[in-house]
Amino acid sequence: MHIFIDESGSFVNAPAVGSFxxxxxxxxxxxxxxxVQRLLGLLxxxxxxxxxxxxxxxxxDESKYFSFLAGLSRFAGVLYAVATDAGLNQPEDVDEHQxxxxxxxxxxxxxxxxxxxxxxxxxxxxxxxGLSPQLYVQLHCQINLIEAVVRNGVLxxxxxxxxxxGNFRWRIDQKHSTKTEYEAAFFDVTxxxxxxxxxxxxxxxxxxxxxxxxxxxxxSAEEKPTYLRDHYGIEISDDAxxxxxxxVRENMQFVDSKYNWGVQVxxxxxxxxxxxxRQQFSDNRTAAHLLGQLMVQSHKGKLPIxxxxxxxxxxxxxxxxxxxxxxxxxxxxxxxxR
Length: 338
Fold this sequence. Notes:
338 residues, alpha/beta, six-stranded mixed β-sheet, 6 strands
């Protein structure tokens, strides 16, 4: 299973409401690869770009972009996304959120048996606390995005392409040729955070579905008692099955989007979603409908796009953007296969 991730926006606090930043993940089975590549190539040629070159949303006529989205909706791949309105995120609230998350990491540090494990947790907390507000917001959004891909994407595709769930190929857009502070923090922070989330709220598994390929990510009997308890102070119950750390670490890379067709698709989706929420298309309602057709109904009635906020006193989205989200929700695919 391919998962391509890219973001749109700087994630810096902004003075104006409606200053959205977005991260998108395009989750696509291998069997769709050639068809998606061909559609992307057609889009590039339609705007006078070579197949090997990267095209940005700013270079594409709105009608051609809408045709591209309509073409993607005929394939099996789905869009997962997280958005946050930087105009509603107050700096002091982001700072408090960041400090609270760093404190949670070391909450049970003293209960660990090994000094090396205690030192590792402290280093992880220091890593989180040391990020700039901009990078912290981006990291928080990206962790929530990957959690949605794992939780909802597995449930969706096990009903349709179960054999593709034996391998997850994560490709994330890199911003520099050398490893950045953000990338280093991402690899350190993401697996334990996702594992902790999965233990608090275990993945929904569909009774009778074929999880045989996905079962390779189950904890072995030897791993369960030691992996998270020794290194992160997290207790594992007997029914905790999925090794999220293995699932995300095994085949995850930051890559140059110029050479990766899937990250280019994710870039176009993230940019289009951001433009739509900012109401910068001439026809935002059509954009919302077409983007929504790529999304999947979430579990427990949640919206197919996550809207994250960091301020306790502000809503996560203003009313005008909320209407576009409702259109996306009404256009999204059903979770259960008919």
